[in-house]
Amino acid sequence: MMMSRMGDEFPQCQRVHVDWEFTLVDKVTQEIKNRKKFRVLAIQNNTQNYQHAAIIITELGQEYVQIPSMIKKFFSEIPKTVEVISKDHFEDKEMFSSSDLRFTGNVYLYTHKLIVPEDTVRKHFQENNLMLVLRDHKYWQNFGEGKNPA
User: Fold this and answer.
1) 0.85 exceeded by pTM
2) Contact 97, 80 (CB under 8 A)
């Protein structure tokens, strides 16, 4: 459902993603206590030469501290692996490399639940030169009620 909401929000953009997993390990026993799957995406607009980042995770807790470095790693690997061919109304094909797109620093976080304070996450992103754009349950509830979501 979160992928379709992102598609509605960015219909003109291509998306490149990778699925990763956070693994919580007990420090004493070294046993795996929990795994959280999530998706990291580049939302790319080749006509306007920019790309945003997005994270889709059902529930976000203390692992938020790892997101800035993961995004940097993800974007550093895209130019090595992705070339996009898109069909345009005016041309049959347009080829571009992801490395040509400017990263805006915006990180769209699609989640059902934050289990850490939003202000803490925002501050951490700002300290890493990233701008958090939160798309949580509260945002979509306001959106559905016709309110202007903040």
Assistant:
1) no
2) no
